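Q: What does the predicted 3D structure of DNA-3-methyladenine glycosylase 2 family protein look like?
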Amino acid sequence: MPDRTWVPPGPLDLHRTLGVLQRGPGDPAFAVRGGELWRASRTPQGPGTLCVAARPADGRVEAEAWGPGAEWLLEQLPELLGEGDDPERLTARHRLVHEARRRHPGVRLARTGLVLESLIPSVLEQKVTSDEAYRAWRLLLQRHGEPAPGPWERMRVMPEPRGWALIPSWEWHRAGVDAKRSGAILRAVRAARRMEEAARMDLAEATRRLMAIPGIGPWTAAETLQRTLGAPDAITVGDLHLPKIIGYALTGRRGTTDEEMLDLLAPYEGQRHRAARLILLSGRVPPRRAPRFPVGDIARL
């Protein structure tokens, strides 16, 4: 059980920095216990579990890891927690963004260095509600993942590429995943080595690499690379809610389109994803007018 202590280069909000890696409540690969964050991953060295805790008294971060991937996870810890991220590169052009950054100085962009770990759940989130996607991820890991190394028995590591490829069609259906999404995942895992190479590319090249897979478009690529690369400019386009939230927060107007959102974020070129994160943290969202979109369940069909 190797461990590591690391001192961040600046303020670090551990929960908000790593919280974007959690895929809903009950995520079998992510857990919070007290002040500790637990994450089960399939690393290049094999499965591993990482436990991270902040020690505010002296500014340290302490981590422990288990499994064949333990050393890899600990070696990647500084990058995961934003050592290579520079929040100061964003210049606030709106009072709301300035205030959000002042209130949340420790939010950094996590960089996992793993592609499929973020790509597969992002594909599951295509064109469905978050609850449907989280349920699918949970069921697939519980039924086809493997127990995570370490002391917490309920955690699961996602299948290796061959394991994803061997999931029968009826299991995808039982998890509520349609053929379009399962097909995109199967094409991605068959090219797993090529996909993982994107973790060592710049944003533009990595986006092209992911989008070479049919069924992976700009939305999925951005959602993946925000986490894999910690890419500050990987703004999500094609999202049902994000343009409306950005538009309302910055202008007070409803119904903002993707194009209008990109115009609003143009002053943050190079840092558009970071700006969007800060805007979301401001909590300024348009009041709900319509009922929540109903949750479908193709497993009943």
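A (community wiki): The structure tokens above were generated from the sequence. Residues 130-144 form the longest helix (15 residues). The beta strands are 3-6, 30-33, 36-43, 46-55, 60-66, 146-147, 156-157.
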